[in-house]
Amino acid sequence: MRKILITFAAMTFAVLGLAAPSSAAGSAGGAGLLAFGDCPSGYGCFWTGTNGGGSRWDAPHCSVGGFPFNLSGHWLDNNIESVRNRGGGTIHLYSDYYGNDYMTSIVNNGQGVNLHSHHRNQASSIRIDC
Q1: Angle at Cα 90 formed by Cα 74 and Cα 62, nearest 5°?
Q2: What is the pLDDT of residue 65?
């Protein structure tokens, strides 16, 4: 139970923007570029640039209770251009904060993808299936 609470607290900090984006050669903090290959196994990774470029956020786990990660006030809100899914379930992106306005999904195949041009910088919530 303690592990679940710690994981939930870490997710809350990340979603609220209290965690700095990862950057430069896989280290936390600072500025730089990360490629798709830098996404750790077991995570969904989201970048502010195409081809795994820009700042990266690693989703810590699937969506708790099926509810989406609301990106309101987070540095990633309307700032996602590429995604790599190396986690356990499909990633769904939505253009609203509540997971109602579906945009696209990224299956768990380990491939990095650039979002279609009309989906780039439009995501305001993310749901990850368990």
Answers
A1: 55
A2: 79
- Contact assessment for residue 7 and residue 60, using Cβ atoms and an 8 Å cutoff: yes
CATH code of the region 2-128: 2.60.20.10
Q: In which residue are the tokens 């590429």 written? A: 82
Taking the C-alpha atoms of residue 39 and residue 126, their distance in angstroms, rounded to an integer, is 17
DSSP code string of 50-112? GGG-S-EEEE-SSPGGGPPEE-TTSTTTT---EEEE-SSS-EEEESSTTS-SEEEEE-SSS-E
Give the residue extent of every domain in the chain.
Answer: 2-128
- Check if the beta carbon of residue 63 is closer than 8 Å to that of residue 78: no
Task: Write the pLDDT tens digit of every residue in 83-101.
Answer: 999 987 999 999 999 999 9
